[in-house]
Amino acid sequence: MSNKPRFPGTSGAGSVRVVDLRSDTVTKPGPAMRRAMAEAEVGDDVMGEDPTINELQKIAADMFGMEAALFVPSGTMSNLIAVMVHCRERGDEMIVGDLSHLHIYEQGGSAQLAGVHSTTVTTLPDGTFDLEQLELKICHGYPDPHYPRSCLICVENTHNIQGGRVLPLTFLQEVRTLADKHGLSVHMDGARVMNAAVAQGVPPSTILQHTHTVSVCLSKGLGAPVGSMLAGPKNFISQAVRCRKALGGGMRQAGILAAAGKLSLLENVEKLQEDHRNAKTFAQALLQCDPPLFIVDTAAVETNILCFHLQELGLSPSEFCARMGQVCEGEEAALGQGIQVLMCPYFGNSVRAVWHLGISPEDTQLAIQKMQFVASQYLEKLRAQ
Ligand SMILES: Cc1ncc(COP(=O)(O)O)c(C=O)c1O
User: Fold this and answer.
1) pLDDT per residue as tens digits for the range 55-81
2) Which of 6, 162, 290, 344 has the fewest CB atoms within 10 Å, i.e. is most exposed?
3) From ligand 1's centre to the CA of 189, what distance in Å?
4) What is the pTM of this model?
């Protein structure tokens, strides 16, 4: 059987199914969401007059147990605004996990745009920090002028790079106690906090009682096309409105987008459970793959993100992902159809696959078939060498 790709891009001749596990950001709005968007009542939101946005903000604040919430264009802007509002004085500092999205994937926006210094703590495999290390990092700034002044601790829940790990409630409580002891605030990058809430079987407010502010993405597993919610105390949100405007995030008749956001919060939260189940099913199939090619800790698959490694048999994560994304000669005959599974080589020489609204249990089974096919083909090739 040759490894020559027949369809290196999207589908060519014959029937090819695409299972896109690159990220939960790839979801597309379905008919009900598009209808809600088309029918949304709108107004000028910079003047506070968009009724659909106002409604979404109220729904989010209530759901998160916060006084107020603000609709913002993206998770990155939402985190940046939080940093800008919490760290207002020159020389203010935030403490972040060294593997946090805020620290790694937001282009250093808090330094670049907000002028805020950050110091890092080591991110542990479950997304938490060592609290003693965290406390040692806290600087008070006064009276010794050498040091910055720590104002903010940022946590990420679920933790992206660590594979969708859910932060234990006891850890959050301990971080908050430490923050209160030293007069710091706690911001949660809760891009996927709804996944955490579903996995823990608690309302999001139970998680967020331990934080001062939170940023929640609507455009990931919840399936909205655009937008994040930043939530916190009323005076924090009033200042956030100013920062959002300065960053160019003041939108006008964006109720069209908020209508999708409303639906995502009201109707799509329960569906996250299915993504978690599918991710686990795929992880178990990796573990059971015969011959063994993968290393995966199934107990660490708590939500919709799966990170796994390949045994050291000469197949790199990028080669594996490339092979999963191609349909080779003979594949249709062996599997009944061509299957392209899109996933990404990831942090620390791993592969990342993410489940979302667009992936059904049947798609997951197709991805498993493809993974088994790729593994057996590769090992056949190794034996033949
Ligand atoms: C944990 C986390 N925070 C923040 C973001 C940023 O969200 P956005 O892509 O909407 O800027 C992401 C995006 O993947 C994320 O995974």
Assistant:
1) 999 999 999 999 999 999 999 999 999
2) 290
3) 8
4) 0.94
